[in-house]
Specification:
With 389 residues, the protein is an alpha/beta fold. 31% of the residues lie in helices and 19% in strands. The protein is built from eleven helices and 15 strands. A seven-stranded parallel beta sheet has the order 5-6-4-7-8-3-9. Strands 10-15-14-11-13-12 form a six-stranded parallel beta sheet, sandwiched between helices. Strands 1-2 form a two-stranded antiparallel ribbon. Helix 9 links the parallel strand 12 and strand 13. The termini are far apart. The mean pLDDT is 91.
Length: 389
């Protein structure tokens, strides 16, 4: 079908903006959108009512476990200034630099103006983590997580949700914070990007340690402001990974040796596939967490309480998860699932603690992939920018 014939002016989905005739189905002569039917059926041309969300009630003070550093405060003020002027902002900050805390002043200001705020993230596990941190920072505020297993309540003073759940909120938010917008499944997903665009009636704040090409183009064209922060609160440099090239069977032997050497420390071991994780967990005699784990919340709670020292994970835990003083090892680091952005985030789990700011990052691989080289180069340049500041 020629490109010009793919769109029909008489067919439009008011939820996802679909006009592609190939993505409509027909039921008894009535066209409906198949592009977003997973969220619920919506007939072509059918309007979506704006949800009636209660205005936030917040007159309290933000509670921080640690005061913002001088550099964090500068970036926080810069972001709020741009947002108040109605300008979209991209916060380009290293993993562990305190991106979440940097947003607190903006959240606080918008809520006190009676404006609706949403913090959206790609993954369910991170939604629960961020919601917990926001609840601690805004005591007395009703912070509502909306994700798989948490959809009975969908409104509160502050909403934290997966990007999929934004379908519930057309034209709902005065401030939409999109965290890790370069992460799967949001990155490159035109449907989720459209849902995010349609949910925001005000301004957007994007957060990431690895900005995508579209965001960089928007920044270069002057259509989006950019705030940068590569310095962690404790002032130490970002941990840079050590790459060890070995055949797979020797990687496993090296991992067993490292487990003994690091005894008493908590270790996150990342693997590319679920079956790799299950096999390795049996060998290491530790839990494995992945997208299909039925007890993800319980596993993470037990790991945080140090019920066990080693946890094997797929890329499920590459972003948004903070475990103090954890060491990071990647197995089969040259696997295609480990992109540059993924590796940067994975190694960003280490060295966050004030008591253990160095961290240890090791990447075991059979060969040096482009993603591994790009990750090492990016982390080196971030550290160089801190040293030269």
């Amino acid at each position: 079908m020629p490109a010009g014939e793919r769109e029909c002016p008489d067919l439009i989905c008011h939820r996802c903006g679909n006009r592609d005739i190939r993505l409509f189905g027909w039921d008894r002569g009535i066209p409906y959108c198949r592009r977003c039917v997973a969220f619920s059926r919506l007939d072509a041309g059918q309007s979506i009512p704006v949800p009636h969300l209660k205005p936030p009630v917040w007159n309290g003070q933000v509670h921080l476990e640690f005061e913002l550093t001088v550099h964090q405060k500068q970036v926080s003020d810069q972001i709020l200034g741009w947002l108040r002027q109605g300008e979209p902002v991209f916060c380009y900050a290293a993993a562990g630099a305190g991106k979440t805390e940097i947003t607190f002043a903006s959240i606080d200001w918008f809520l006190k103006q009676g404006k609706k705020v949403c913090f959206a993230i790609s993954r369910r596990q991170v939604v629960l983590e961020i919601a917990s941190r926001l609840q601690a920072a805004f005591p007395g505020l009703e912070v509502v997580p909306v994700c798989e297993g948490f959809t009975s309540v969908t409104d509160g003073d502050l909403i934290v949700c997966t990007t999929h759940q934004l379908y519930r909120y057309p034209e709902a938010f005065d401030l939409l914070i999109l965290d890790e917008l370069d992460a799967f499944p949001y990155r490159g997903n035109a449907l989720l990007e459209e849902l995010a665009r349609r949910s925001c009636r005000g301004v957007r704040l994007m957060l990431s340690a690895t900005p995508d090409e579209d965001s960089l183009r928007e920044i270069s064209a002057g259509r989006m402001q950019a705030a940068r922060l590569f310095r962690r609160p404790h002032g130490k440099l970002l941990p840079e990974p050590v790459f060890v090239l070995l055949p797979v069977w020797m990687q496993v032997i090296r991992l067993l040796f490292l487990q003994r050497r690091m005894r008493g420390k908590q270790i996150l071991v990342f693997v590319p596939r679920i079956r790799d994780g299950k096999r390795l967990a049996r060998l290491l005699k530790c839990p494995c967490i992945h997208s299909q784990s039925p007890d993800k919340d319980d596993i993470m709670n037990r790991f945080r309480h140090r019920d066990f020292d080693v946890l094997v994970s797929t890329t499920l835990l590459e972003r948004g998860i903070t475990v103090p003083s954890v060491q990071v090892i990647v197995l089969k680091g040259d696997h295609p699932v480990f992109t540059m952005a993924s590796l940067v985030q994975i190694f960003g789990r280490a060295g966050r603690s004030f008591h253990d700011p160095e961290g240890e990052c090791l990447c075991l691989a059979a060969s040096m992939s482009d993603s591994m080289k790009q990750c090492a180069d990016l982390l080196r340049r971030m550290n160089e920018s801190v040293c030269s500041a």
